[in-house]
Amino acid sequence: MATMAGSGYGTIENAALLVDLENKITWLGPDKAIPVEADPEQELDCHQRWITPGLIDCHTHLVYAGNRSDEFEQRLQGISYADIARRGGGIQSTVRSTREADFEMLLDATVQRASILVGEGVTRIEIKSGYGLDLDSERRMLQVARAVSGHLPVKVHTTFLGAHALPLEFSGDPDGYIEHICTSMLPALAADGLIDAVDGFCESIGFSTMEIERLFRRAQQLNLPVKLHAEQLSNQHGAELVARYKGLSADHLEYLDEPGIRAMAAAGTVATLLPGAFYYLNETRLPPIAGLREHAVPMAIATDHNPGTSPVLSLLTCMNMGCVLFGLRPDEALAGVTRHAAKALGVDHLCGTLQPGKLAELAIWNIDQPVDLVYSIGQNPCDSTIQKG
Ligand code: NIG
Ligand code: FE
After folding, report:
1. Percent of all residues in the chain with a pLDDT value above 70, rounded to a whole number
2. Side-chain half-sphere of 231: how many Cα atoms within 13 Å?
3. Which ligand is closest to the CA of 310, given by its number?
């Protein structure tokens, strides 16, 4: 068992784990040491497989309609992501298809995508809105995200990403749109109980730090935690901003600088690395891994699954990319999708490591050692997951 508690893998050989009826871990250790008074109602023999915490994909855009393979082709011909966005493609293209799609169509597509992640050991997923950009469409996206856990053994955390792009109705008026988000969309969707966290896209082709700060202030008034797409294509000092609001995470971070790292370290903000987007955009600027390590900023890894910059549906592949492209150690990669991903969702007291008192959200693997999880691409070593008992 790799408990992922403490440093490294937290390995226990020939391990056993006791779970109560509330799906809480009550004990774990070497099977020879199982307390004598334990008299389990049900036993599951994993037959020498490895057990890890269930994997957590803490940054996805799983709800959308359409695809953007045409843009993939354009980028391969040398047109940049930012240029495609300025020409009305990019996020706007997915907004058009998502607005047209009804609840059932979106739910079908989302459950299909989520089931691929779950089949690779994922037991929790964060899902963002942000392809609706009007109240009804954003609500539909969040309702779809909430509905996913009724169809699959997975827990879903919903994030409101209304500040993803400027909708056409507000063309040339970002202030007006932020105002609309703060006075209408955000409070309404929060009142519907559809928002677990608030996110934005802080970038020259997204929103400025001043605009994002207005959003964060409103989120704070509503007691909602914040996170941010920051320093993906340029350094906008979004990481410092989100750290100032004690944000859960700053995500992407290729252009993060030293003050940003220090601010995140002081605030306990997780650095969520998204190597899938790095890979698909053919980015060459690496996130400052050495600096993040030096300042002990916890690093999570997520798929960032979306139809534009990261159409990847494999968290294991993203762990491999985290190691090969970003230079993470395999144990850092596994911590990035367990312990640190749980922290990025504000649930590290509940899951992310195997420890007494935490939930028994488990993944069971056909591997010889933990590094096998990141070693190969395209083999799925997941035997099964346990979620909700
Ligand atoms: O995380 N950067 C902004 N948001 C997404 C991309 C969304 C899209 O292109 O549709 C991301 O990379
Ligand atoms: Fe994203």
Report:
1. 100
2. 29
3. 1
Give residue-wise pLDDT tens across range 45-73.
999 999 999 999 999 999 999 999 999 99
- DSSP three-state, residue 270: strand
> Where are the CATH 2.30.40.10 domain residues in the chain?
15-53+353-386
CATH 3.20.20.140 residue spans of the chain? 55-344
What's the CATH fold of domain 55-344? TIM Barrel (3.20.20)
Q: Ligand 1 centroid to 20 CA: how many Å?
A: 40
Q: Give the C-alpha distances (Å, rounded to integers) separating 92 from 65, 73, 116, 165, 292.
A: 12, 17, 26, 7, 33
Measured from the Cα of 131, ligand 1's closest atom is 10
From the CA of 61, how far away is ligand 2's center (Å)? 6
Superfamily of 15-53+353-386 according to CATH: Urease, subunit C, domain 1 (2.30.40.10)
pTM over 0.70: yes
Distance from C-alpha of 31 to C-alpha of 325, rounded to nearest angstrom:
38
